[in-house]
Amino acid sequence: MQNGLFGTRDIDWDLPTKRNYALWYARRNRFSRILLLDDDIRDISASIIKHGNSLLQSFMVCGLFVDEFPDTSVTGHAEIVLGEDVRTFLSGNSLFLRANTDLGFFPKIYNEDWIFMIPHVHAKQVAAAGVIQQEPYDPFVSAALAEFQEPGEVIADGLLALVNACAYDRRFDQDTWRELLGIRRQWLADLKSRVPYERQRVAMGTALCRCQSILEDDCVRFVEDWEKDCETWRSLIRG
């Protein structure tokens, strides 16, 4: 992927590489089903594993919702601080995959798990197997985290909004992304004005500045590059 605006900068973000390697390794060794599990997940039960595995008979992807301490971004945690109802998506930290099919590619960007799943969501090939817990952490420990996450937030939230609006074919349209960026900037400014603590305001201000630097053309080019990468990846793992 050549879109430098969405690079991970100084943060060492190796989850996409590890997840792609797992897909490649599974395909090379003819595994039919795999579970991607992060090291901060706790108390996954045998019944959940059995249920997730069984769902792969009908779906290509099956995930879990993270309960108690939601698996969401810095901006999502700002919403939680304000008492808002945050609807989180299935998390890549516990993901069942039908590995012997042509799945997609995890791009090197925050929310790579959501972006990986979105085409399968659009094709109605994703199921939920239940809820799980992960270790809590301080989401506001560094404003740099919000800056790092923002490009992936823009892309993932934008694509999900298009899927929900039955408008996924507009993902290559600059006017569509201009509108989505405008909505997100207003939302970030609102969060910044309402969160109670200074470091939360700094984090939201940092996310807003990053969002303001992203252009609609950047979003279109990212989606185009990522879909080309998916085709290249599928050819690679078939070989």
Count of the domains: 1
In the predicted model, the low-confidence regions spanning at least 5 consecutive residues are: none
Q: Distance between termini?
A: 21 Å
Gross morphology is globular
Structural class: alpha+beta
Summarize the helix and strand pattern as letters.
HEEHEHEHEHHHH
- Across the major sheet, the strand order is 1-4-3-5-2
Q: Biggest sheet, open or closed, and with what strands and sense?
A: 5 strands, mixed
Measured on Cα atoms, how large is the radius of gyration? 18 Å
Helix amount: 40-55%
Mean pLDDT over the full residue set:
91
**Beta-strand fraction estimate:** 5-15%
Write down how many β-strands occur, each being a DSSP E stretch of 2 or more residues: 5
Continuous helix count: 8
Quickly list its features.
single chain; 5-stranded mixed beta sheet; 239 residues; 8 helices
